[in-house]
UniProtKB/TrEMBL annotation:
Family indicated by similarity: Belongs to the glycosyl hydrolase 47 family.
Gene encoding the protein: MNS1B
Catalytic activity: N(4)-(alpha-D-Man-(1->2)-alpha-D-Man-(1->2)-alpha-D-Man-(1->3)-[alpha-D-Man-(1->3)-[alpha-D-Man-(1->2)-alpha-D-Man-(1->6)]-alpha-D-Man-(1->6)]-beta-D-Man-(1->4)-beta-D-GlcNAc-(1->4)-beta-D-GlcNAc)-L-asparaginyl-[protein] (N-glucan mannose isomer 8A1,2,3B1,3) + 3 H2O = N(4)-(alpha-D-Man-(1->3)-[alpha-D-Man-(1->3)-[alpha-D-Man-(1->6)]-alpha-D-Man-(1->6)]-beta-D-Man-(1->4)-beta-D-GlcNAc-(1->4)-beta-D-GlcNAc)-L-asparaginyl-[protein] (N-glucan mannose isomer 5A1,2) + 3 beta-D-mannose; N(4)-(alpha-D-Man-(1->2)-alpha-D-Man-(1->2)-alpha-D-Man-(1->3)-[alpha-D-Man-(1->2)-alpha-D-Man-(1->3)-[alpha-D-Man-(1->2)-alpha-D-Man-(1->6)]-alpha-D-Man-(1->6)]-beta-D-Man-(1->4)-beta-D-GlcNAc-(1->4)-beta-D-GlcNAc)-L-asparaginyl-[protein] (N-glucan mannose isomer 9A1,2,3B1,2,3) + 4 H2O = N(4)-(alpha-D-Man-(1->3)-[alpha-D-Man-(1->3)-[alpha-D-Man-(1->6)]-alpha-D-Man-(1->6)]-beta-D-Man-(1->4)-beta-D-GlcNAc-(1->4)-beta-D-GlcNAc)-L-asparaginyl-[protein] (N-glucan mannose isomer 5A1,2) + 4 beta-D-mannose
GO MF entry, a single one: mannosyl-oligosaccharide 1,2-alpha-mannosidase activity
Keyword Cell inner membrane among record annotations: no
SS bond list: C352-C381
Protein name, per record: alpha-1,2-Mannosidase
GO BP annotation list: carbohydrate metabolic process; ERAD pathway
Protein backbone atom coordinates (compact mmCIF):
# COMPACT_ATOMS: atom_id res chain seq x y z
CA UNK A 1 0.00 0.00 0.00
CA UNK A 2 1.40 3.38 -0.98
CA UNK A 3 1.15 6.44 1.29
CA UNK A 4 0.26 8.87 -1.50
CA UNK A 5 -1.24 8.40 -4.94
CA UNK A 6 1.16 6.03 -6.64
CA UNK A 7 3.84 7.15 -9.05
CA UNK A 8 2.08 5.31 -11.87
CA UNK A 9 -1.20 7.03 -11.10
CA UNK A 10 0.27 10.52 -11.14
CA UNK A 11 2.50 9.87 -14.12
CA UNK A 12 -0.23 8.29 -16.24
CA UNK A 13 -2.80 10.96 -15.40
CA UNK A 14 -0.24 13.56 -16.37
CA UNK A 15 0.98 11.96 -19.57
CA UNK A 16 -2.45 10.88 -20.76
CA UNK A 17 -4.44 14.01 -20.02
CA UNK A 18 -1.65 16.44 -20.53
CA UNK A 19 0.83 15.22 -23.13
CA UNK A 20 3.62 12.69 -22.83
CA UNK A 21 7.29 11.98 -23.38
CA UNK A 22 6.28 8.78 -25.17
CA UNK A 23 5.63 8.49 -28.91
CA UNK A 24 1.98 8.34 -29.94
CA UNK A 25 0.98 5.13 -31.67
CA UNK A 26 -1.74 6.76 -33.73
CA UNK A 27 -5.50 6.70 -33.42
CA UNK A 28 -6.85 3.79 -35.43
CA UNK A 29 -10.48 2.84 -35.03
CA UNK A 30 -11.17 -0.52 -33.41
CA UNK A 31 -14.48 -2.26 -32.81
CA UNK A 32 -15.39 -4.68 -30.06
CA UNK A 33 -16.47 -8.24 -30.82
CA UNK A 34 -20.22 -8.27 -31.37
CA UNK A 35 -20.81 -11.90 -32.26
CA UNK A 36 -23.11 -14.13 -30.25
CA UNK A 37 -20.07 -16.11 -29.13
CA UNK A 38 -18.22 -13.04 -27.87
CA UNK A 39 -20.76 -10.32 -27.02
CA UNK A 40 -18.11 -8.20 -25.42
CA UNK A 41 -19.40 -4.65 -25.48
CA UNK A 42 -22.49 -3.80 -27.45
CA UNK A 43 -24.08 -1.66 -24.76
CA UNK A 44 -23.64 2.07 -25.13
CA UNK A 45 -21.32 3.62 -22.57
CA UNK A 46 -23.09 4.78 -19.43
CA UNK A 47 -21.32 8.10 -19.26
CA UNK A 48 -22.23 11.74 -18.86
CA UNK A 49 -20.48 14.76 -20.25
CA UNK A 50 -18.05 14.54 -17.35
CA UNK A 51 -15.29 17.01 -16.48
CA UNK A 52 -15.00 20.27 -18.31
CA UNK A 53 -13.44 19.31 -21.63
CA UNK A 54 -12.63 22.98 -22.24
CA UNK A 55 -9.92 22.87 -19.60
CA UNK A 56 -6.60 23.18 -21.38
CA UNK A 57 -3.92 20.50 -21.26
CA UNK A 58 -1.69 22.96 -19.44
CA UNK A 59 -4.31 23.48 -16.72
CA UNK A 60 -4.77 19.73 -16.33
CA UNK A 61 -1.01 19.23 -16.10
CA UNK A 62 -0.69 21.97 -13.53
CA UNK A 63 -3.46 20.49 -11.36
CA UNK A 64 -1.93 17.01 -11.39
CA UNK A 65 1.56 18.34 -10.69
CA UNK A 66 0.22 20.45 -7.83
CA UNK A 67 -1.42 17.39 -6.28
CA UNK A 68 1.80 15.40 -6.56
CA UNK A 69 3.95 18.23 -5.21
CA UNK A 70 1.60 18.76 -2.26
CA UNK A 71 1.73 15.07 -1.34
CA UNK A 72 5.48 14.74 -1.78
CA UNK A 73 6.38 17.94 0.08
CA UNK A 74 4.36 16.89 3.11
CA UNK A 75 5.98 13.44 3.09
CA UNK A 76 9.41 14.99 2.73
CA UNK A 77 8.87 17.52 5.51
CA UNK A 78 7.38 15.10 8.02
CA UNK A 79 8.78 11.67 7.13
CA UNK A 80 11.92 12.02 5.00
CA UNK A 81 13.89 8.77 5.14
CA UNK A 82 10.91 6.77 6.32
CA UNK A 83 8.62 4.76 4.08
CA UNK A 84 5.34 6.65 4.25
CA UNK A 85 3.39 9.51 5.72
CA UNK A 86 0.15 8.50 7.45
CA UNK A 87 -1.95 11.50 6.47
CA UNK A 88 -4.72 11.24 9.05
CA UNK A 89 -2.32 11.53 11.98
CA UNK A 90 0.76 12.95 10.24
CA UNK A 91 2.70 10.07 11.75
CA UNK A 92 5.30 8.12 9.78
CA UNK A 93 5.24 4.44 8.84
CA UNK A 94 7.88 1.97 7.76
CA UNK A 95 6.11 -0.88 6.02
CA UNK A 96 8.98 -1.31 3.53
CA UNK A 97 12.05 -1.70 5.74
CA UNK A 98 12.69 1.98 6.59
CA UNK A 99 14.53 2.67 3.34
CA UNK A 100 12.37 5.57 2.15
CA UNK A 101 9.92 3.79 -0.14
CA UNK A 102 7.88 6.90 -0.94
CA UNK A 103 10.98 8.75 -2.13
CA UNK A 104 11.88 5.93 -4.53
CA UNK A 105 8.26 5.68 -5.67
CA UNK A 106 8.16 9.42 -6.34
CA UNK A 107 11.40 9.70 -8.32
CA UNK A 108 10.16 8.49 -11.70
CA UNK A 109 7.02 10.61 -11.32
CA UNK A 110 9.05 13.72 -10.56
CA UNK A 111 11.21 12.93 -13.58
CA UNK A 112 8.26 12.56 -15.96
CA UNK A 113 6.76 15.76 -14.56
CA UNK A 114 10.09 17.53 -14.95
CA UNK A 115 10.22 18.76 -11.33
CA UNK A 116 13.95 19.40 -10.94
CA UNK A 117 14.00 20.35 -7.22
CA UNK A 118 12.27 17.13 -6.17
CA UNK A 119 14.48 15.06 -8.47
CA UNK A 120 17.56 16.67 -6.93
CA UNK A 121 16.39 16.07 -3.36
CA UNK A 122 15.67 12.40 -3.96
CA UNK A 123 18.95 11.89 -5.81
CA UNK A 124 20.78 13.42 -2.87
CA UNK A 125 18.96 11.13 -0.44
CA UNK A 126 19.36 7.77 -2.20
CA UNK A 127 23.14 7.34 -1.61
CA UNK A 128 22.49 7.60 2.15
CA UNK A 129 20.31 4.48 2.25
CA UNK A 130 21.93 1.40 3.77
CA UNK A 131 20.40 -1.46 1.83
CA UNK A 132 22.46 -4.03 3.73
CA UNK A 133 20.48 -3.84 6.93
CA UNK A 134 16.90 -3.78 8.18
CA UNK A 135 15.29 -5.03 11.35
CA UNK A 136 12.12 -6.25 9.66
CA UNK A 137 11.41 -9.03 7.17
CA UNK A 138 11.99 -8.20 3.51
CA UNK A 139 9.66 -9.14 0.64
CA UNK A 140 11.83 -10.06 -2.33
CA UNK A 141 8.94 -9.31 -4.69
CA UNK A 142 7.91 -5.94 -3.26
CA UNK A 143 11.50 -4.81 -2.86
CA UNK A 144 12.25 -5.74 -6.46
CA UNK A 145 9.24 -4.04 -8.04
CA UNK A 146 9.47 -0.90 -5.89
CA UNK A 147 13.03 -0.18 -4.83
CA UNK A 148 15.02 -1.96 -7.52
CA UNK A 149 12.65 -1.03 -10.34
CA UNK A 150 12.34 2.54 -9.12
CA UNK A 151 16.08 3.14 -9.08
CA UNK A 152 16.81 1.34 -12.34
CA UNK A 153 14.04 3.11 -14.24
CA UNK A 154 15.22 6.47 -12.92
CA UNK A 155 18.77 5.60 -13.93
CA UNK A 156 17.66 4.78 -17.47
CA UNK A 157 15.62 7.97 -17.73
CA UNK A 158 18.48 10.12 -16.45
CA UNK A 159 20.99 8.43 -18.72
CA UNK A 160 18.65 8.82 -21.67
CA UNK A 161 15.65 10.98 -22.57
CA UNK A 162 15.55 12.99 -19.31
CA UNK A 163 19.28 13.48 -18.77
CA UNK A 164 18.84 17.26 -18.60
CA UNK A 165 16.97 16.94 -15.28
CA UNK A 166 20.14 16.31 -13.29
CA UNK A 167 23.48 18.06 -13.39
CA UNK A 168 25.02 15.66 -10.87
CA UNK A 169 26.50 12.64 -12.69
CA UNK A 170 27.71 11.09 -9.43
CA UNK A 171 24.20 11.12 -8.01
CA UNK A 172 22.87 9.47 -11.14
CA UNK A 173 25.53 6.76 -10.97
CA UNK A 174 24.60 6.14 -7.35
CA UNK A 175 21.25 4.83 -8.56
CA UNK A 176 23.00 1.93 -10.25
CA UNK A 177 25.43 1.41 -7.39
CA UNK A 178 22.59 1.30 -4.88
CA UNK A 179 20.63 -1.07 -7.09
CA UNK A 180 23.59 -3.42 -7.10
CA UNK A 181 23.99 -3.10 -3.33
CA UNK A 182 20.34 -3.95 -2.81
CA UNK A 183 20.38 -6.94 -5.17
CA UNK A 184 23.53 -8.25 -3.48
CA UNK A 185 21.72 -8.06 -0.14
CA UNK A 186 18.67 -9.86 -1.55
CA UNK A 187 20.26 -12.63 -3.57
CA UNK A 188 20.61 -15.15 -0.75
CA UNK A 189 16.84 -15.62 -1.18
CA UNK A 190 17.70 -17.80 -4.19
CA UNK A 191 19.83 -20.19 -2.10
CA UNK A 192 17.28 -23.01 -2.22
CA UNK A 193 17.50 -26.55 -3.61
CA UNK A 194 15.86 -25.47 -6.88
CA UNK A 195 16.90 -21.85 -7.12
CA UNK A 196 13.26 -20.79 -6.74
CA UNK A 197 13.61 -18.02 -4.17
CA UNK A 198 11.89 -17.66 -0.85
CA UNK A 199 9.91 -14.44 -0.91
CA UNK A 200 10.11 -13.45 2.77
CA UNK A 201 13.69 -13.14 3.96
CA UNK A 202 15.45 -11.81 7.04
CA UNK A 203 18.68 -9.84 6.72
CA UNK A 204 19.61 -10.10 10.40
CA UNK A 205 19.86 -13.90 10.27
CA UNK A 206 20.24 -14.34 6.49
CA UNK A 207 17.35 -16.78 6.65
CA UNK A 208 14.06 -17.46 4.91
CA UNK A 209 12.02 -18.30 7.97
CA UNK A 210 11.67 -21.92 6.90
CA UNK A 211 9.61 -21.18 3.78
CA UNK A 212 8.91 -24.22 1.57
CA UNK A 213 6.87 -22.58 -1.21
CA UNK A 214 6.56 -19.38 -3.19
CA UNK A 215 3.86 -17.86 -5.36
CA UNK A 216 3.48 -17.55 -9.11
CA UNK A 217 3.60 -13.73 -9.13
CA UNK A 218 6.25 -13.38 -6.46
CA UNK A 219 8.51 -15.81 -8.32
CA UNK A 220 7.62 -14.71 -11.84
CA UNK A 221 7.90 -10.94 -11.43
CA UNK A 222 11.62 -10.57 -10.84
CA UNK A 223 13.06 -11.17 -14.29
CA UNK A 224 12.80 -7.71 -15.81
CA UNK A 225 14.56 -5.87 -12.98
CA UNK A 226 17.23 -8.49 -12.37
CA UNK A 227 17.93 -8.86 -16.09
CA UNK A 228 18.20 -5.09 -16.50
CA UNK A 229 20.64 -4.95 -13.60
CA UNK A 230 22.81 -7.58 -15.29
CA UNK A 231 22.67 -5.69 -18.58
CA UNK A 232 23.68 -2.42 -16.94
CA UNK A 233 26.44 -3.81 -14.71
CA UNK A 234 27.77 -6.50 -17.06
CA UNK A 235 27.40 -9.04 -14.25
CA UNK A 236 25.28 -12.00 -15.44
CA UNK A 237 24.65 -13.35 -11.95
CA UNK A 238 21.47 -11.37 -11.35
CA UNK A 239 19.88 -12.53 -14.58
CA UNK A 240 20.93 -16.13 -14.03
CA UNK A 241 19.29 -16.20 -10.61
CA UNK A 242 15.96 -14.86 -11.82
CA UNK A 243 15.89 -16.91 -15.02
CA UNK A 244 16.64 -20.18 -13.25
CA UNK A 245 13.60 -19.69 -11.05
CA UNK A 246 11.50 -18.78 -14.08
CA UNK A 247 12.27 -22.04 -15.88
CA UNK A 248 10.02 -23.93 -13.46
CA UNK A 249 7.14 -21.59 -14.33
CA UNK A 250 7.71 -21.82 -18.06
CA UNK A 251 7.73 -25.63 -17.88
CA UNK A 252 5.12 -26.35 -15.21
CA UNK A 253 4.99 -29.74 -13.55
CA UNK A 254 3.01 -31.82 -12.82
CA UNK A 255 0.86 -31.54 -15.93
CA UNK A 256 -2.37 -31.16 -13.97
CA UNK A 257 -1.09 -27.80 -12.65
CA UNK A 258 -1.83 -26.34 -16.12
CA UNK A 259 -5.58 -26.99 -16.50
CA UNK A 260 -5.73 -24.75 -19.57
CA UNK A 261 -2.81 -24.14 -21.96
CA UNK A 262 -0.61 -21.39 -20.55
CA UNK A 263 -2.67 -20.93 -17.36
CA UNK A 264 -0.99 -22.43 -14.31
CA UNK A 265 -1.42 -22.81 -10.58
CA UNK A 266 -0.42 -20.38 -7.84
CA UNK A 267 1.97 -22.07 -5.38
CA UNK A 268 5.29 -23.75 -6.18
CA UNK A 269 7.35 -25.99 -3.90
CA UNK A 270 10.79 -24.39 -3.69
CA UNK A 271 12.43 -27.68 -2.75
CA UNK A 272 11.52 -29.58 -5.92
CA UNK A 273 9.99 -27.03 -8.31
CA UNK A 274 6.59 -28.73 -8.51
CA UNK A 275 3.34 -26.79 -8.51
CA UNK A 276 1.18 -27.45 -5.47
CA UNK A 277 -2.21 -26.52 -6.96
CA UNK A 278 -4.12 -25.78 -10.15
CA UNK A 279 -5.84 -22.65 -8.89
CA UNK A 280 -5.22 -19.31 -10.54
CA UNK A 281 -6.17 -16.66 -13.05
CA UNK A 282 -5.25 -13.00 -13.47
CA UNK A 283 -5.96 -11.94 -9.87
CA UNK A 284 -3.46 -10.96 -7.21
CA UNK A 285 -0.95 -13.69 -6.53
CA UNK A 286 -0.84 -14.69 -10.20
CA UNK A 287 -1.24 -11.42 -12.08
CA UNK A 288 2.24 -10.09 -12.76
CA UNK A 289 3.61 -13.46 -13.90
CA UNK A 290 1.53 -13.03 -17.07
CA UNK A 291 2.38 -9.32 -17.23
CA UNK A 292 6.12 -10.04 -17.16
CA UNK A 293 5.95 -12.75 -19.80
CA UNK A 294 4.91 -10.14 -22.33
CA UNK A 295 7.11 -7.35 -21.03
CA UNK A 296 10.22 -9.52 -21.06
CA UNK A 297 9.55 -10.24 -24.72
CA UNK A 298 9.11 -6.52 -25.36
CA UNK A 299 12.35 -5.85 -23.49
CA UNK A 300 14.38 -8.26 -25.62
CA UNK A 301 12.56 -10.41 -28.16
CA UNK A 302 15.78 -12.09 -29.28
CA UNK A 303 16.47 -13.54 -25.85
CA UNK A 304 12.91 -14.05 -24.65
CA UNK A 305 10.95 -15.41 -27.59
CA UNK A 306 9.76 -18.33 -25.47
CA UNK A 307 8.16 -15.88 -23.05
CA UNK A 308 5.91 -14.59 -25.81
CA UNK A 309 4.88 -18.15 -26.63
CA UNK A 310 3.74 -18.69 -23.06
CA UNK A 311 1.89 -15.35 -22.96
CA UNK A 312 0.05 -16.13 -26.18
CA UNK A 313 -0.98 -19.53 -24.83
CA UNK A 314 -2.29 -17.90 -21.65
CA UNK A 315 -4.03 -15.10 -23.56
CA UNK A 316 -5.78 -17.47 -25.94
CA UNK A 317 -6.91 -19.75 -23.10
CA UNK A 318 -8.17 -16.73 -21.18
CA UNK A 319 -10.28 -15.57 -24.11
CA UNK A 320 -11.70 -19.07 -24.54
CA UNK A 321 -12.25 -20.14 -20.94
CA UNK A 322 -12.10 -17.26 -18.43
CA UNK A 323 -14.17 -14.59 -20.19
CA UNK A 324 -17.34 -13.89 -18.21
CA UNK A 325 -20.32 -11.54 -18.49
CA UNK A 326 -22.49 -10.59 -15.49
CA UNK A 327 -26.12 -11.60 -15.87
CA UNK A 328 -27.44 -8.13 -15.03
CA UNK A 329 -25.17 -6.36 -17.53
CA UNK A 330 -24.00 -9.00 -20.01
CA UNK A 331 -22.41 -6.31 -22.14
CA UNK A 332 -19.62 -6.00 -19.56
CA UNK A 333 -16.61 -8.29 -19.71
CA UNK A 334 -14.73 -9.59 -16.67
CA UNK A 335 -12.26 -12.42 -16.15
CA UNK A 336 -13.16 -15.32 -13.88
CA UNK A 337 -10.49 -17.18 -11.95
CA UNK A 338 -10.22 -20.97 -11.93
CA UNK A 339 -9.89 -23.85 -9.50
CA UNK A 340 -8.83 -26.80 -11.61
CA UNK A 341 -11.43 -26.62 -14.39
CA UNK A 342 -14.11 -24.87 -12.32
CA UNK A 343 -14.61 -21.11 -12.47
CA UNK A 344 -15.04 -18.41 -9.82
CA UNK A 345 -16.91 -15.25 -10.83
CA UNK A 346 -15.00 -12.72 -8.75
CA UNK A 347 -12.21 -10.29 -9.39
CA UNK A 348 -10.02 -7.57 -7.88
CA UNK A 349 -8.74 -4.10 -8.54
CA UNK A 350 -5.33 -5.71 -9.07
CA UNK A 351 -6.78 -7.63 -12.01
CA UNK A 352 -7.53 -4.41 -13.87
CA UNK A 353 -4.07 -4.59 -15.42
CA UNK A 354 -5.46 -7.36 -17.66
CA UNK A 355 -6.92 -5.03 -20.28
CA UNK A 356 -3.60 -3.28 -20.65
CA UNK A 357 -1.77 -6.56 -21.07
CA UNK A 358 -4.06 -7.61 -23.91
CA UNK A 359 -3.80 -4.17 -25.52
CA UNK A 360 -0.02 -4.26 -25.35
CA UNK A 361 -0.04 -7.80 -26.72
CA UNK A 362 -2.29 -6.72 -29.56
CA UNK A 363 0.11 -3.96 -30.50
CA UNK A 364 3.22 -6.13 -30.18
CA UNK A 365 1.84 -9.08 -32.15
CA UNK A 366 -0.41 -7.03 -34.45
CA UNK A 367 -3.50 -9.00 -33.43
CA UNK A 368 -6.72 -7.05 -33.48
CA UNK A 369 -8.55 -9.73 -31.48
CA UNK A 370 -6.30 -9.01 -28.49
CA UNK A 371 -6.93 -5.28 -28.81
CA UNK A 372 -10.69 -5.79 -29.01
CA UNK A 373 -10.63 -8.07 -25.99
CA UNK A 374 -8.38 -5.68 -24.06
CA UNK A 375 -10.71 -2.76 -24.71
CA UNK A 376 -13.65 -4.83 -23.46
CA UNK A 377 -11.75 -5.62 -20.26
CA UNK A 378 -10.87 -1.96 -19.80
CA UNK A 379 -14.54 -1.09 -20.14
CA UNK A 380 -15.39 -3.67 -17.47
CA UNK A 381 -12.90 -2.21 -15.02
CA UNK A 382 -14.05 1.31 -15.87
CA UNK A 383 -17.57 0.25 -14.87
CA UNK A 384 -16.33 -0.63 -11.39
CA UNK A 385 -15.28 3.00 -11.04
CA UNK A 386 -18.28 4.66 -12.67
CA UNK A 387 -20.89 2.83 -10.62
CA UNK A 388 -19.63 3.58 -7.09
CA UNK A 389 -20.57 6.62 -5.02
CA UNK A 390 -16.96 7.84 -4.96
CA UNK A 391 -16.20 6.93 -8.59
CA UNK A 392 -13.30 4.85 -7.27
CA UNK A 393 -13.26 1.12 -7.92
CA UNK A 394 -13.38 -1.40 -5.06
CA UNK A 395 -10.55 -3.68 -3.99
CA UNK A 396 -12.65 -6.79 -4.68
CA UNK A 397 -15.93 -7.40 -6.48
CA UNK A 398 -18.05 -10.28 -7.72
CA UNK A 399 -20.82 -11.14 -10.15
CA UNK A 400 -21.56 -14.56 -8.65
CA UNK A 401 -25.35 -14.53 -8.44
CA UNK A 402 -25.47 -17.24 -5.78
CA UNK A 403 -23.74 -15.10 -3.16
CA UNK A 404 -25.27 -11.62 -3.52
CA UNK A 405 -26.03 -9.98 -0.19
CA UNK A 406 -29.61 -8.64 -0.02
CA UNK A 407 -28.41 -5.07 0.54
CA UNK A 408 -26.45 -5.20 -2.73
CA UNK A 409 -29.07 -6.83 -4.94
CA UNK A 410 -30.25 -3.54 -6.46
CA UNK A 411 -26.68 -2.37 -6.93
CA UNK A 412 -25.83 -5.58 -8.81
CA UNK A 413 -28.86 -5.24 -11.08
CA UNK A 414 -27.81 -1.74 -12.06
CA UNK A 415 -24.04 -2.12 -12.08
CA UNK A 416 -23.27 -5.68 -13.15
CA UNK A 417 -21.20 -6.44 -10.04
CA UNK A 418 -21.37 -6.16 -6.28
CA UNK A 419 -18.65 -5.11 -3.86
CA UNK A 420 -17.00 -7.69 -1.63
CA UNK A 421 -14.22 -5.44 -0.31
CA UNK A 422 -14.88 -1.69 -0.50
CA UNK A 423 -11.38 -0.51 0.37
CA UNK A 424 -9.08 1.35 -2.02
CA UNK A 425 -5.33 0.78 -1.62
CA UNK A 426 -4.06 3.45 -4.04
CA UNK A 427 -3.50 0.88 -6.74
CA UNK A 428 -2.29 1.99 -10.20
CA UNK A 429 -3.28 -1.05 -12.28
CA UNK A 430 -6.41 0.44 -13.82
CA UNK A 431 -4.49 3.51 -14.96
CA UNK A 432 -1.94 1.46 -16.86
CA UNK A 433 -4.75 -0.24 -18.75
CA UNK A 434 -6.55 3.05 -19.39
CA UNK A 435 -3.31 4.57 -20.62
CA UNK A 436 -2.86 1.83 -23.22
CA UNK A 437 -6.51 2.22 -24.23
CA UNK A 438 -6.04 5.94 -24.74
CA UNK A 439 -2.84 5.44 -26.72
CA UNK A 440 -4.41 2.90 -29.02
CA UNK A 441 -7.78 4.57 -29.60
CA UNK A 442 -6.94 8.23 -29.00
CA UNK A 443 -10.14 8.50 -26.93
CA UNK A 444 -9.57 10.70 -23.89
CA UNK A 445 -12.65 9.26 -22.15
CA UNK A 446 -10.60 6.27 -21.04
CA UNK A 447 -8.52 8.49 -18.76
CA UNK A 448 -10.45 11.56 -17.75
CA UNK A 449 -12.99 10.03 -15.39
CA UNK A 450 -10.43 8.01 -13.43
CA UNK A 451 -7.80 10.75 -13.32
CA UNK A 452 -10.35 13.27 -12.11
CA UNK A 453 -11.70 10.81 -9.54
CA UNK A 454 -8.25 10.24 -8.07
CA UNK A 455 -6.85 13.75 -8.19
CA UNK A 456 -9.71 16.19 -7.65
CA UNK A 457 -12.00 16.79 -4.69
CA UNK A 458 -15.37 16.41 -6.44
CA UNK A 459 -15.09 13.50 -8.87
CA UNK A 460 -17.78 13.02 -11.45
CA UNK A 461 -18.31 10.21 -13.96
CA UNK A 462 -17.16 10.83 -17.49
Amino acid sequence: MRPVLSSWAFALCLTSCCGSVLPHSGTPSYNYFTSAEHPLAVEEDRVSSGPNIDISNEERASAVKDAFTFAFNNYWELCKGQDELLPVTNACGNSRNHWGASAIDALSTALIMGIRPIVAEILEYIPTIDFTTTATHVSLFETTIRYLAGMLSAYDLLQGPLSELSSNPAAVESLLAQSKSLADSLKFAFDTPTGIPANDIFFTTRSTGGATSNGLATTGSLQLEWQRLSDLTGDPEYSILAQKAETYLLNPQPAWAEPFPGLVGTRIDITNGLFLDATGGWNGGDDSFYEYLLKMYVYDSSRYGNYSDRWILAADSTMEHLVSHPSSRPQLTFLASFADTSFVNSSQHLTCFDGGSFLLGGQVFDKKEYIDFGLALVKGCRATYEQTATRIGPEQFSWNTSAIMPDQADFFENSGFYITNPSYALRPEVLESFYYAFRITGELRFLLNVCFSLVFDNPKPL
